Amino acid sequence: MIAVLFDFSGTLFRIESAESWLRGALAEAGIVLPEPEVVETARALAVAGALPGGTNPVRVPEEMAGAWATRDESAELHRAVYTGLSRQVALPDPALHDLLYDRHMSPAAWQPYPDAGKVLRALRERGIAIGVVSNIGWDLRPVFREHGLDPYIDAYALSYEHGVQKPDTRLFAAACAHLGAEPRRTLMVGDDRRADGGAAALGCAVHFVDHLPVTERPDGLLPVLDLVDEGGKTSASG
């Protein structure tokens, strides 16, 4: 069986901006801040790397370095790391740190890339098995369901559910096993050359896309359809 594996964040979906994220949490908490303070606080949170799926921290605190490296291997560690990063930024209510973390897990915080549905639907019409392989600390299935993409996904291999994270080949192997697919007939699509590129060690072909805002990458996934031909073969691409 031929199969295509997709990364989640930066590949099929993109998280909202740090400013939108903060505004959503403030609204939920009923807190109103002066506009300049909202903008500056959002900037500080982005610099701290507190938004999962957003930019990485400019500097990971030394005492968090070990946890940062393995943050996607459990739900508890993932929450601890990201709320720890957000606590580097002063917020008007300490409860906002957990509220922000909860906000990023909501389907409303994520948008699919414009061509994601088109590509997934086309693959399904060709009879190609589809999996999602993600380094993540929470269940992303509701995001796919809310945006109408879950019917196209045959298997999810999420790092926190397996206790290993990409580039460990065991996570890709788990996805292939779920799909009943041979790695050499499987294509991995992702935005991180190190993490997603780990699939190559298992024998998968690998194709990379750019981790850009949704509005700046309207058709970055379309080449996947050319890489998976009707004859059941996959080819690697840079």
TrEMBL record:
The keyword Hydrolase applies. GO terms for molecular function: hydrolase activity. It holds the Pfam family Hydrolase. Keywords: Hydrolase. Gene3D superfamilies: HAD superfamily/HAD-like. The keyword Hydrolase applies. SUPFAM superfamilies: HAD-like. PANTHER family: HALOACID DEHALOGENASE-LIKE HYDROLASE (HAD) SUPERFAMILY PROTEIN, PTHR46649. This is HAD family hydrolase. It comes from Streptomyces aquilus.
